[in-house]
Amino acid sequence: MKSSILGVKIDQVTMEEAVAKIAAMIAEPKPHLVITANSEMVMAAKRDPLLYEIIERADLVVPDGIGLIWAGRILNQPLPERVPGVELMEALLAEGVRRQWRVFLLGAEPAVVEQAAKRIAVQYNGINIVGTHHGFFKREEQQQVLDKIKGSHPDILFVALGVPKQEKFAAAHLASLGVPVAMGVGGSFDIFAGTARRAPYWMRRIGLEWLYRILKQPTRIRRAAALPQFAFWVFMEKLFLGGKAADG
What we know:
By secondary structure, this protein is of the alpha/beta class. The chain has helices at 15-26, 39-47, 49-57, 66-74, 85-99, 110-123, 142-152, 165-177, 188-193, 201-205, 209-216, 221-224, 226-241; strands at 2-5, 8-11, 32-37, 60-63, 102-107, 128-133, 156-160, 181-184. The mean pLDDT is 92.
């Protein structure tokens, strides 16, 4: 089942269900795209037809942001719970140890992705990281990066290039790479590397992680401008359309 938030389809999944679905995808031979969506991405998709199409065709779109949970309630499109991308990545790494999945990390600065890989290897003892590459490669270097990923034969590719670059990169190359699952994870590598911290649990619990990010990194204020716009359009849709039943 999916919920439609301003025309963007989001899967009605819990964290446990998302992990189970991704595990099933990895067991299949074909490539799959997993997207971690928030209100900023929904607003970006309204302006960017390609991003909208990528989300529409993705195999799984989880509700990363608290704004989507709120909008789901307002629009009568309920989503069971927030599935933060970094926590989903943590759950998949834990499952990857048990199932011996092959993992590739792509994105962030060179020192960050390497530090993230080292700390993940310690935290998830037995995890099989088959390759890493930073996200600051030039256009003429892209084929080398693709060859490196393909040659590593990962089961899951975590892409931390930022929205919408990571979604567009994964969608464009997933089939040729033959990776069972590619998933955009935004700034998650910084958190694993220890160069960034998540909001305290109490702020996350009441839906104020976005505020913590702005306080820690004031340059994000321009991105945060999408949040009141998102709320405005949610209220407009509720006012004029009254909310719609969830899609199957």
